[in-house]
Design a protein that fits this description.
By secondary structure, the protein is mostly beta strands. It is 0% helix and 39% strand. The protein contains no helices and 17 strands. It is globular. The relative contact order is 0.14.
């Protein structure tokens, strides 16, 4: 495995590669994984930033105002919200804090270690990235330093390159989803559906693990 610092779209990037894959990580852009490229298939898995540079976000920025490509971490939340913790009001930013954070990092012979210490929520967020053959392994360690319970959720916000052949594979125990976007086919928000196959609002079979062959351009969003 080889690991080195490079420039990518005017941002500092870390390139990790072996004979099978190469990946690009942007420490100053929330430790975003900007590229996952298969050398065997000559295929880029991630949706790419169409601009020539990345715009740096600040804490509590609106996620949709910035580049939404690649693989971001959403932590400690997804939707913007407010919460009292030990009688102190905390604002949870849109799509969390991590995507806009500036990470410190260390290059090792076989891994990349990324660290971020939140001044607002006081947690220490560490991720260690390694690659082996055609696999990417990310180990997370999140330490709560608030000295009280800290409600949080981690979410993988990963935009894949569109392909009709893509299939989503989840553990067999996952049999239900909740629709979170008003949808012509899935109906109202908060409506539950079976996974991977459900019935749409017209009584037709609708796949939730593959791109459906419908004529119009549409999107679905579910938890």
């Amino acid at each position: 495995m080889r690991i080195k610092e490079i420039k990518f779209k005017q941002s500092k990037a870390i390139k990790m590669e072996n004979e099978f894959i190469s990946i690009l990580i942007l420490p100053e852009i929330g430790s975003k994984i900007a590229s996952i490229y298969s050398k065997e298939k000559d295929f880029e898995f991630l949706f790419q930033n169409k601009d020539n540079s990345y715009k740096k976000a600040e804490f509590d920025s609106n996620f949709e105002d910035y580049d939404c490509s690649g693989f971001d971490d959403c932590f400690p939340n997804i939707d913007r919200s407010k919460l009292f913790i030990n009688n102190q009001l905390y604002t949870y930013p849109d799509h969390g804090e991590i995507w806009s954070a500036n990470f410190d990092y260390k290059l090792k012979s076989d891994s990349l270690v990324l660290d971020y210490k939140s001044k607002y929520f006081k947690y220490h967020y560490r991720k260690i990235i390694t690659i082996t053959e055609n696999k990417i392994i990310i180990d997370y360690k999140i330490k709560n330093n608030l000295k009280t319970a800290f409600p949080a959720i981690w979410t993988m916000h990963c935009l894949l390159k569109y392909s009709k052949e893509i299939e989503l594979n989840f553990p067999k125990e996952m049999t239900k989803i909740v629709n979170v976007q008003q949808s012509k086919y899935l109906g109202e928000k908060n409506k539950e559906h079976s996974f991977p196959i459900t019935a749409d609002m017209f009584g037709q079979q609708y796949r939730l693990d593959k791109v459906n062959n419908r004529k119009e351009i549409l999107s679905e969003k579910y938890y």
